[in-house]
Amino acid sequence: MHGHFEKLYEDQATWVPCYFKFRFFPFLQSMQRSEGFNAVLKRYVNPHKSILNFVKEYEKIQVHILVREGGND
């Protein structure tokens, strides 16, 4: 029985996405991607500015990422 679960774990990339296809989890991401995005935020967002400025800068970053990745959203 234990071997069965090990095999499921090894193959999770092939079966897990089907259970989450219609679910949106914006805060789940790899550590590497998280650290990379934190670096982007630090480059473009000043902690001494207002929350309104933060939102505007964040939106610019999102647009930049979408354009770079070829998205149309």
UniProtKB/TrEMBL annotation:
The keyword Secreted does not apply. One of its GO terms (molecular function) is zinc ion binding. This is Protein FAR1-RELATED SEQUENCE. Transmembrane segments: none annotated. It is found in: Nucleus. InterPro entries: FHY3/FAR1. Keywords: Metal-binding, Nucleus, Zinc, Zinc-finger. Putative transcription activator involved in regulating light control of development.
